[in-house]
């Protein structure tokens, strides 16, 4: 892998950190807050592709594990990986990979196809991993956690739509930058 690829992944890890400065929105019925960082997962996968998108999330989560307070609400450190959000955090790697994989396979990238990739990778994958881990960590039944997580769906669909509008335009614009052309 070229140095430029590491820099691209690190740049998107930094974007995730910036999104972490937006305050989380706590909900009274679940210990997992609404965070704007999930849109970063979708954008990273959509722009960088599967491999580099996932790498950007690994870099970001390593910084979190090292104690950087860059999660929504200023959280960081190893303890977050033992909390109710742990599964969702770890799922960001798989989510970015799946979004990137689907976007890379699109014959013609459109907002509609990007939206579908975002819903599958940036919402469904995150829920499939995050909900069971939250249930395990909190001791609350899987059914109850799933029902509580349904409150996140409208916001996640809005984030998926926003990322779907941005990604095709950003990918086109970035293709004009020689150091950003995909060589992955």
Main sheet makeup: 2 strands, antiparallel
Rg, please? 16 Å
Kindly state the number of beta strands.
2
The secondary-structure class comes to mainly alpha
Mean pLDDT: 94
Low-confidence stretches: none
Question: How would you characterize this protein structure?
Answer:
The chain is mainly alpha-helical and 184 residues long. The protein is 68% helix and 4% strand. It has helices at residues 3-20, 37-65, 86-105, 111-138, 142-149, 153-175; strands spanning 25-27, 30-34. Strands 1-2 form a two-stranded antiparallel ribbon. A hairpin with a 2-residue loop joins strand 1 (25-27) and strand 2. The chain starts with a helix and ends in a 9-residue tail after the last helix. 41% of the residues are buried. The model has no long low-confidence stretch (mean pLDDT 94).
Topology:
Layout: H1 3-20, E1 25-27, E2 30-34, H2 37-65, H3 86-105, H4 111-138, H5 142-149, H6 153-175
Antiparallel strand pairs: 1-2
Helix pairs in contact: 1-2, 2-3, 2-4, 2-6, 3-4, 4-5, 4-6
List keywords for this structure.
184 residues, mainly alpha, 6 helices, 68% helix
Concise summary:
With 184 residues, the chain is mostly helical. Helix content is 68%, strand content 4%.
């Amino acid at each position: 892998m070229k140095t430029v690829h590491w820099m691209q992944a690190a740049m998107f890890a930094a974007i995730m950190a910036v999104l972490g400065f937006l305050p989380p929105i706590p909900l009274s019925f679940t210990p997992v807050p609404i965070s704007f960082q999930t849109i970063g997962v979708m954008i990273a996968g959509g722009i960088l592709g599967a491999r580099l998108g996932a790498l950007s999330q690994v870099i970001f989560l390593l910084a979190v594990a090292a104690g950087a307070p860059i999660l929504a609400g200023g959280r960081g450190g190893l303890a977050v990986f033992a909390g109710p959000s742990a599964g969702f955090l770890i799922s960001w790697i798989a989510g970015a990979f799946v979004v990137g994989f689907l976007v890379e396979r699109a014959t013609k990238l459109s907002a509609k196809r990007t939206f579908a990739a975002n819903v599958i990778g940036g919402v469904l994958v995150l829920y499939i991993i995050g909900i069971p881990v939250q249930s395990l960590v909190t001791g609350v039944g899987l059914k109850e956690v799933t029902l509580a997580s349904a409150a996140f769906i409208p916001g996640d669909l809005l984030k998926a739509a926003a990322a779907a509008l941005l990604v095709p335009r950003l990918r086109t614009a970035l293709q004009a930058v020689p150091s950003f052309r995909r060589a992955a």
